[in-house]
Amino acid sequence: MKLDDRKWEILKAIVKTYLETGEPVGSRTISKYADLNLSSATIRNEMSDLEDMGYILQPHTSAGRIPSDAGYRLYVDRMMEEKDREVTEMKELVLQRQDKMELLLKQMVKVLAANTNYAAMISGPKYHRTKLKFIQLSVVNESQLLATIVAEGNVVKNRLLDIEHGLDQKTVLEMNILLNSALNGLTIEEINLGTIAKLKGQAGVHSELVNRVLDTVAEAIQTSDDDLEIYTSGATNIFKYPELSTSEKASHLISAFEDKKELADIISQDSNDETGIQVYIGEESPVATMQDCSVVTATYELGDGMYGKIGVIGPKRMDYEKVVGTMKTLMAQLDEIFKKKEQ
Protein backbone atom coordinates (compact mmCIF):
# COMPACT_ATOMS: atom_id res chain seq x y z
CA MET A 1 0.00 0.00 0.00
CA LYS A 2 1.35 3.41 -0.98
CA LEU A 3 1.74 6.25 1.54
CA ASP A 4 0.26 9.05 -0.57
CA ASP A 5 0.18 12.75 0.32
CA ARG A 6 -3.16 12.52 2.13
CA LYS A 7 -2.04 9.62 4.33
CA TRP A 8 1.20 11.48 5.08
CA GLU A 9 -0.65 14.64 6.15
CA ILE A 10 -2.92 12.59 8.44
CA LEU A 11 0.04 10.73 9.94
CA LYS A 12 1.85 14.01 10.50
CA ALA A 13 -1.21 15.45 12.24
CA ILE A 14 -1.47 12.36 14.47
CA VAL A 15 2.20 12.54 15.49
CA LYS A 16 2.11 16.29 16.20
CA THR A 17 -1.14 16.05 18.17
CA TYR A 18 0.06 13.07 20.20
CA LEU A 19 3.36 14.79 21.03
CA GLU A 20 1.46 17.85 22.24
CA THR A 21 -1.22 16.04 24.29
CA GLY A 22 0.12 12.58 25.11
CA GLU A 23 -3.38 11.23 24.44
CA PRO A 24 -4.50 8.84 21.66
CA VAL A 25 -5.75 10.83 18.68
CA GLY A 26 -9.20 10.28 17.15
CA SER A 27 -10.52 11.08 13.67
CA ARG A 28 -12.68 13.94 14.98
CA THR A 29 -9.59 15.69 16.38
CA ILE A 30 -7.73 15.29 13.09
CA SER A 31 -10.74 16.59 11.09
CA LYS A 32 -10.30 19.95 12.84
CA TYR A 33 -6.99 20.58 11.08
CA ALA A 34 -7.91 23.42 8.72
CA ASP A 35 -5.46 22.42 5.99
CA LEU A 36 -6.84 18.85 5.71
CA ASN A 37 -10.47 19.65 4.86
CA LEU A 38 -11.49 15.98 5.19
CA SER A 39 -14.51 14.33 6.78
CA SER A 40 -14.18 12.15 9.87
CA ALA A 41 -15.25 9.11 7.83
CA THR A 42 -12.51 9.66 5.26
CA ILE A 43 -9.96 10.16 8.02
CA ARG A 44 -11.07 6.94 9.75
CA ASN A 45 -10.54 5.00 6.50
CA GLU A 46 -7.09 6.49 6.06
CA MET A 47 -6.19 5.81 9.69
CA SER A 48 -7.21 2.18 9.19
CA ASP A 49 -4.82 1.99 6.23
CA LEU A 50 -2.05 3.62 8.26
CA GLU A 51 -2.58 1.05 10.99
CA ASP A 52 -2.37 -1.78 8.44
CA MET A 53 0.88 -0.24 7.17
CA GLY A 54 2.32 -0.24 10.71
CA TYR A 55 2.62 3.54 11.16
CA ILE A 56 0.03 3.91 13.95
CA LEU A 57 -1.37 1.75 16.74
CA GLN A 58 -4.70 1.51 18.54
CA PRO A 59 -3.80 0.97 22.21
CA HIS A 60 -7.40 0.27 23.33
CA THR A 61 -10.62 -0.75 21.63
CA SER A 62 -12.65 2.29 20.51
CA ALA A 63 -9.75 4.56 21.42
CA GLY A 64 -7.79 6.87 19.15
CA ARG A 65 -4.45 6.01 17.60
CA ILE A 66 -0.87 6.71 18.61
CA PRO A 67 2.27 6.66 16.43
CA SER A 68 4.25 3.43 16.23
CA ASP A 69 8.06 3.42 16.16
CA ALA A 70 7.84 3.19 12.36
CA GLY A 71 5.51 6.21 12.35
CA TYR A 72 7.92 8.21 14.50
CA ARG A 73 10.82 7.17 12.26
CA LEU A 74 9.06 8.28 9.07
CA TYR A 75 8.01 11.58 10.68
CA VAL A 76 11.53 12.34 11.93
CA ASP A 77 13.21 11.40 8.64
CA ARG A 78 10.85 13.52 6.55
CA MET A 79 11.03 16.44 8.97
CA MET A 80 14.84 16.37 8.82
CA GLU A 81 14.76 16.23 5.02
CA GLU A 82 12.38 19.21 4.87
CA LYS A 83 14.42 21.28 7.31
CA ASP A 84 17.73 20.38 5.61
CA ARG A 85 16.26 21.38 2.25
CA GLU A 86 14.89 24.61 3.69
CA VAL A 87 18.22 25.51 5.30
CA THR A 88 20.11 24.75 2.06
CA GLU A 89 17.72 26.92 0.04
CA MET A 90 18.07 29.72 2.57
CA LYS A 91 21.88 29.56 2.48
CA GLU A 92 21.86 29.73 -1.33
CA LEU A 93 19.47 32.67 -1.27
CA VAL A 94 21.55 34.49 1.34
CA LEU A 95 24.75 34.04 -0.69
CA GLN A 96 23.07 35.37 -3.83
CA ARG A 97 21.66 38.38 -1.99
CA GLN A 98 24.96 39.07 -0.23
CA ASP A 99 26.89 39.04 -3.52
CA LYS A 100 24.43 41.46 -5.15
CA MET A 101 24.29 43.68 -2.06
CA GLU A 102 28.09 43.86 -1.75
CA LEU A 103 28.45 44.94 -5.39
CA LEU A 104 25.67 47.53 -5.00
CA LEU A 105 27.14 49.04 -1.82
CA LYS A 106 30.63 49.27 -3.32
CA GLN A 107 29.18 51.19 -6.26
CA MET A 108 27.16 53.44 -3.96
CA VAL A 109 30.12 54.44 -1.79
CA LYS A 110 32.17 55.34 -4.88
CA VAL A 111 29.35 57.58 -6.11
CA LEU A 112 29.07 59.22 -2.68
CA ALA A 113 32.81 59.98 -2.53
CA ALA A 114 32.89 61.28 -6.12
CA ASN A 115 29.80 63.49 -5.72
CA THR A 116 30.90 65.08 -2.43
CA ASN A 117 34.69 65.15 -2.93
CA TYR A 118 35.13 63.81 0.62
CA ALA A 119 35.91 60.40 2.12
CA ALA A 120 32.90 58.10 2.25
CA MET A 121 31.85 54.85 3.89
CA ILE A 122 28.83 52.58 3.89
CA SER A 123 28.11 49.58 6.09
CA GLY A 124 26.53 46.34 5.01
CA PRO A 125 23.01 45.81 6.35
CA LYS A 126 22.38 44.28 9.74
CA TYR A 127 19.16 43.37 11.51
CA HIS A 128 17.34 45.21 14.26
CA ARG A 129 15.28 43.21 16.77
CA THR A 130 15.83 40.07 14.74
CA LYS A 131 13.15 37.40 15.17
CA LEU A 132 13.80 33.69 15.47
CA LYS A 133 12.32 31.66 12.58
CA PHE A 134 13.03 28.10 13.69
CA ILE A 135 15.36 25.78 15.58
CA GLN A 136 16.42 22.34 14.42
CA LEU A 137 18.26 19.92 16.71
CA SER A 138 19.81 16.92 14.94
CA VAL A 139 21.70 13.98 16.40
CA VAL A 140 25.31 13.84 15.18
CA ASN A 141 26.48 11.02 17.44
CA GLU A 142 25.97 9.79 21.02
CA SER A 143 27.80 12.76 22.49
CA GLN A 144 26.89 15.62 20.13
CA LEU A 145 23.85 17.45 18.77
CA LEU A 146 23.84 19.92 15.87
CA ALA A 147 21.74 23.00 16.59
CA THR A 148 20.69 24.90 13.46
CA ILE A 149 19.25 28.33 14.23
CA VAL A 150 17.49 30.28 11.48
CA ALA A 151 16.66 33.92 12.19
CA GLU A 152 14.84 36.66 10.31
CA GLY A 153 16.71 37.77 7.23
CA ASN A 154 17.58 34.09 6.66
CA VAL A 155 20.56 34.28 9.00
CA VAL A 156 21.65 30.66 9.56
CA LYS A 157 23.93 29.60 12.42
CA ASN A 158 25.08 26.03 13.13
CA ARG A 159 26.54 25.03 16.49
CA LEU A 160 27.65 21.64 17.86
CA LEU A 161 26.43 20.97 21.39
CA ASP A 162 28.06 18.35 23.60
CA ILE A 163 25.66 16.09 25.51
CA GLU A 164 26.50 13.75 28.38
CA HIS A 165 23.93 11.11 27.51
CA GLY A 166 22.73 10.00 24.11
CA LEU A 167 19.27 11.21 23.07
CA ASP A 168 16.91 9.10 21.00
CA GLN A 169 15.15 10.56 17.96
CA LYS A 170 11.80 10.77 19.75
CA THR A 171 13.30 12.92 22.54
CA VAL A 172 15.05 15.17 20.04
CA LEU A 173 11.79 15.53 18.11
CA GLU A 174 9.95 16.48 21.31
CA MET A 175 12.68 19.02 22.11
CA ASN A 176 12.36 20.55 18.62
CA ILE A 177 8.60 20.91 19.00
CA LEU A 178 8.96 22.33 22.52
CA LEU A 179 11.56 24.93 21.50
CA ASN A 180 9.84 26.00 18.29
CA SER A 181 6.40 26.26 19.91
CA ALA A 182 7.78 28.55 22.62
CA LEU A 183 10.32 30.65 20.72
CA ASN A 184 9.37 31.03 17.04
CA GLY A 185 8.69 34.64 16.09
CA LEU A 186 10.31 36.10 19.23
CA THR A 187 13.17 38.58 19.36
CA ILE A 188 15.98 38.18 21.89
CA GLU A 189 14.37 40.93 23.98
CA GLU A 190 11.10 38.97 24.11
CA ILE A 191 12.72 35.75 25.37
CA ASN A 192 12.35 36.70 29.03
CA LEU A 193 13.08 34.89 32.27
CA GLY A 194 9.51 33.60 32.48
CA THR A 195 9.75 32.02 29.02
CA ILE A 196 13.11 30.46 29.88
CA ALA A 197 11.89 29.09 33.24
CA LYS A 198 8.80 27.55 31.62
CA LEU A 199 10.90 25.93 28.89
CA LYS A 200 13.39 24.48 31.35
CA GLY A 201 10.56 23.13 33.46
CA GLN A 202 8.96 21.42 30.48
CA ALA A 203 12.34 20.00 29.40
CA GLY A 204 12.79 18.25 32.75
CA VAL A 205 16.10 16.37 32.84
CA HIS A 206 17.14 18.13 29.63
CA SER A 207 16.86 21.66 31.10
CA GLU A 208 20.62 22.23 30.87
CA LEU A 209 20.51 21.41 27.16
CA VAL A 210 17.70 23.95 26.73
CA ASN A 211 19.91 26.49 28.46
CA ARG A 212 22.74 25.91 25.97
CA VAL A 213 20.35 26.04 23.02
CA LEU A 214 19.07 29.41 24.28
CA ASP A 215 22.66 30.71 24.45
CA THR A 216 23.09 29.62 20.83
CA VAL A 217 19.83 31.34 19.86
CA ALA A 218 20.99 34.57 21.52
CA GLU A 219 24.29 34.40 19.67
CA ALA A 220 22.53 33.78 16.35
CA ILE A 221 19.97 36.59 16.53
CA GLN A 222 22.16 39.26 18.10
CA THR A 223 24.18 41.30 15.64
CA SER A 224 27.79 42.21 16.28
CA ASP A 225 29.75 45.14 14.86
CA ASP A 226 32.75 42.80 14.70
CA ASP A 227 31.06 40.94 11.82
CA LEU A 228 29.98 44.12 10.04
CA GLU A 229 31.21 44.78 6.51
CA ILE A 230 32.23 48.39 5.89
CA TYR A 231 33.01 49.64 2.38
CA THR A 232 35.00 52.83 1.87
CA SER A 233 36.03 55.14 -0.97
CA GLY A 234 37.69 58.51 -1.48
CA ALA A 235 40.11 58.40 1.47
CA THR A 236 42.70 60.26 -0.65
CA ASN A 237 40.24 63.16 -1.01
CA ILE A 238 41.43 64.16 2.47
CA PHE A 239 44.66 65.48 0.91
CA LYS A 240 42.66 68.10 -1.03
CA TYR A 241 42.08 70.07 2.18
CA PRO A 242 45.17 71.74 3.73
CA GLU A 243 43.80 71.58 7.30
CA LEU A 244 43.65 67.78 7.04
CA SER A 245 46.61 67.07 4.79
CA THR A 246 49.46 67.43 7.30
CA SER A 247 51.34 64.16 7.53
CA GLU A 248 50.18 63.29 11.07
CA LYS A 249 46.48 64.07 10.60
CA ALA A 250 46.30 62.45 7.18
CA SER A 251 48.10 59.36 8.46
CA HIS A 252 45.61 58.92 11.33
CA LEU A 253 42.63 59.35 9.02
CA ILE A 254 43.96 56.94 6.39
CA SER A 255 44.70 54.37 9.12
CA ALA A 256 41.13 54.68 10.40
CA PHE A 257 39.86 53.90 6.92
CA GLU A 258 42.18 50.94 6.54
CA ASP A 259 41.51 49.07 9.80
CA LYS A 260 37.83 50.17 9.96
CA LYS A 261 37.52 49.61 13.71
CA GLU A 262 37.04 53.34 14.28
CA LEU A 263 34.50 53.49 11.47
CA ALA A 264 32.52 50.80 13.30
CA ASP A 265 32.38 53.16 16.31
CA ILE A 266 30.72 55.78 14.12
CA ILE A 267 28.26 53.27 12.71
CA SER A 268 27.27 52.05 16.18
CA GLN A 269 26.07 55.54 17.19
CA ASP A 270 22.29 56.02 17.31
CA SER A 271 20.83 58.91 15.37
CA ASN A 272 19.05 61.68 17.30
CA ASP A 273 17.30 62.87 14.15
CA GLU A 274 14.03 61.43 12.88
CA THR A 275 15.43 61.49 9.34
CA GLY A 276 18.28 59.22 10.40
CA ILE A 277 20.89 61.91 9.58
CA GLN A 278 23.44 62.85 12.23
CA VAL A 279 26.14 65.56 11.97
CA TYR A 280 29.25 65.47 14.20
CA ILE A 281 31.41 68.60 14.13
CA GLY A 282 34.95 68.51 15.47
CA GLU A 283 35.09 67.26 19.04
CA GLU A 284 31.54 65.93 18.79
CA SER A 285 32.93 63.05 16.74
CA PRO A 286 32.84 59.69 18.55
CA VAL A 287 36.26 58.92 17.00
CA ALA A 288 39.30 60.72 18.46
CA THR A 289 41.28 60.74 15.19
CA MET A 290 38.40 62.54 13.44
CA GLN A 291 38.01 65.46 15.83
CA ASP A 292 39.53 67.84 13.30
CA CYS A 293 36.82 66.79 10.83
CA SER A 294 33.11 66.80 10.39
CA VAL A 295 31.32 63.50 10.07
CA VAL A 296 27.83 63.16 8.60
CA THR A 297 26.01 59.81 8.88
CA ALA A 298 22.65 58.61 7.65
CA THR A 299 20.70 55.43 8.33
CA TYR A 300 19.29 53.52 5.37
CA GLU A 301 16.51 50.96 5.84
CA LEU A 302 15.70 48.05 3.55
CA GLY A 303 12.64 46.61 5.28
CA ASP A 304 12.26 43.44 7.38
CA GLY A 305 14.25 45.11 10.18
CA MET A 306 17.33 45.48 7.94
CA TYR A 307 19.35 48.71 8.10
CA GLY A 308 22.85 50.14 7.70
CA LYS A 309 24.80 53.41 7.83
CA ILE A 310 26.21 55.77 5.22
CA GLY A 311 28.92 58.23 6.27
CA VAL A 312 30.92 61.16 4.87
CA ILE A 313 34.12 62.46 6.49
CA GLY A 314 35.55 65.81 5.47
CA PRO A 315 36.79 69.17 6.79
CA LYS A 316 34.69 71.23 9.19
CA ARG A 317 34.09 73.64 6.30
CA MET A 318 32.40 70.90 4.25
CA ASP A 319 29.39 71.75 2.11
CA TYR A 320 26.80 70.39 4.56
CA GLU A 321 23.82 71.17 2.32
CA LYS A 322 25.33 69.24 -0.59
CA VAL A 323 26.37 66.30 1.60
CA VAL A 324 22.93 65.94 3.23
CA GLY A 325 21.21 66.32 -0.15
CA THR A 326 23.47 63.68 -1.73
CA MET A 327 22.85 61.28 1.16
CA LYS A 328 19.08 61.66 0.91
CA THR A 329 19.22 61.01 -2.84
CA LEU A 330 21.43 57.97 -2.30
CA MET A 331 19.13 56.51 0.35
CA ALA A 332 16.12 56.97 -1.95
CA GLN A 333 17.99 55.25 -4.78
CA LEU A 334 19.05 52.39 -2.50
CA ASP A 335 15.48 51.93 -1.32
CA GLU A 336 14.17 51.93 -4.91
CA ILE A 337 16.82 49.50 -6.15
CA PHE A 338 16.20 47.13 -3.25
CA LYS A 339 12.44 47.14 -3.83
CA LYS A 340 12.98 46.30 -7.52
CA LYS A 341 15.29 43.42 -6.56
CA GLU A 342 12.59 42.01 -4.26
CA GLN A 343 9.89 42.08 -6.94
Would you give an account of this structure?
- The chain has helices at residues 5-21, 27-31, 40-52, 69-116, 169-183, 193-203, 207-221, 247-259, 261-267, 320-342, and strands at 56-57, 66-67, 119-123, 126-127, 132-141, 144-151, 155-162, 230-233, 277-281, 293-303, 306-315.
- The protein has 343 residues and is of the alpha+beta class.
- The chain folds into three domains: 5-67, Orthogonal Bundle (Arc Repressor Mutant, subunit A), CATH 1.10.10; 105-127 and 229-342, Beta-Lactamase; 132-221, Enolase-like, domain 1 (2-Layer Sandwich).
- It is built from ten helices and eleven strands.
Summarize the structure.
The protein is an alpha+beta fold and 343 residues long. Helix content is 49%, strand content 20%.
Helix content: 40-55%
Domains (count): 3
| CATH topology grouping of the largest domain | Beta-Lactamase
- CATH C-level category of the largest domain: Alpha Beta
Name given to the CATH homologous superfamily of the largest domain:
GAF domain
Radius of gyration: 28 Å
Strand content: 15-25%
Strand/helix succession = HHHEEHEEEEEHHHEHHEEEH
Topology:
Elements: H1 5-21, H2 27-31, H3 40-52, E1 56-57, E2 66-67, H4 69-116, E3 119-123, E4 126-127, E5 132-141, E6 144-151, E7 155-162, H5 169-183, H6 193-203, H7 207-221, E8 230-233, H8 247-259, H9 261-267, E9 277-281, E10 293-303, E11 306-315, H10 320-342
Antiparallel strand pairs: 1-2, 3-8, 3-11, 4-11, 5-6, 6-7, 9-10, 10-11
Helix pairs in contact: 1-3, 4-10, 5-6, 6-7
